[in-house]
């Protein structure tokens, strides 16, 4: 990609963004992955992030080039610490060295507000990983306390929605029994430190798993009849909100009713393989465009109508070096040259489902003290790695039990 060509497109995006994105939510977040060899420089990404009104960015590492590029922009950052470092980062000395180099050195110019330690660890069924998760989180938090940063930077981890045993109806949301003990300890950490509970939720997987049983309009926030939770009489007209409320209920069942839930990943691919039903530009436009409209309304779910949704859309760019099915390389809102992958179509808020209607009531490559292992594929920032279908998961949608493939995501520096 020629640099001048990129600047040309970037200038166009900035000049028309006020017309294309007039209702963007102030709290919109975006996932910035870098498994590609053709992405613009971090400096050139800044105007793209601003053009869509995103005020929060989630990195899968602590890429110093990115963090420096966004200095003094006011954009909030969540930075990541990969699964492969959990065992080593349990060492308080190594945790403190990492925090000093990858977080403290960028403050206050770059607004780093959270560190997520590990990604979807509990659904890898790897006891060595799961046993290291909480100790690693505690070591990182202790490092923040020692450095006087714990009041401005929280520590958390991101979970797959498959940590739920049941998710439909939302009122029956419950965690897997085999994970309850581990989750309870982690939840206690969240409560004590004031950090959010992160969940990665993809209605696309449910639709892909059984397109004949899952109504497309229901997963795309399009007008539809919706469903009513018989236990609460709450009305749901989109799957994402039902999934979020299932998580709220699962947390409440363990005594953590007030714990904030943030959606650290959700999105829809614009292209997929032949068996990836629904992965089209039109569906991606509807899902992400309608989701952003809902976020702009600053209303919560039917169960928590007054809770501001903190959602990070996946992802900023299409990433050509990600392995796995074609969809993995086509979640981006933008192509690598800075042009939109498709029109979001959000110039108005008409005909959008998903309001909280109720019935009967309301890279940082340098991990200094830890040797960096070789990463595959090689890119400007090793970021994260999404792998092809690995294990089966089961999701309740309506009264149908769906068996769908989970695309587990593994973080690499």
Topology of this structure?
Elements: H1 3-20, E1 29-32, H2 42-51, E2 56-59, H3 64-69, E3 76-81, H4 86-89, H5 92-102, E4 111-119, H6 127-146, E5 154-160, E6 164-166, E7 174-175, H7 180-193, E8 197-200, H8 203-209, H9 216-219, E9 227-228, E10 235-236, H10 239-253, E11 261-266, H11 281-296, E12 311-313, E13 384-386, E14 391-397, E15 400-406, E16 409-411
Parallel strand pairs: 1-2, 1-12, 2-3, 3-4, 4-5, 5-8, 8-11, 11-12
Antiparallel strand pairs: 6-7, 9-10, 13-16, 14-15
Helix pairs in contact: 1-2, 5-6, 6-7
Please summarize what this structure is.
The chain crosses the membrane at residues 6-25. This protein is an alpha/beta fold and 413 residues long.
Q: Which properties best describe this structure?
A:
alpha/beta, eight-stranded parallel beta barrel, two-stranded antiparallel ribbon, 11 helices, 17% strand, disordered N terminus, disordered C terminus, hydrolase, glycosidase, transmembrane, Glyco_hydro_17_plant
Report on the architecture of this protein.
- The protein has 413 residues and is α/β, with parallel strands linked by helices.
- It has eleven helices and 16 strands.
- The strands form five sheets. An eight-stranded parallel beta barrel has the order 1-2-3-4-5-8-11-12.
- Helix 1 (3-20) packs parallel to helix 2 and helix 5 crosses helix 6 (127-146).
- The longest helix is centred in the first third of the chain and has 20 residues, at 127-146.
- It is globular.
- The two termini are 25 Å apart.
- The relative contact order is 0.18.
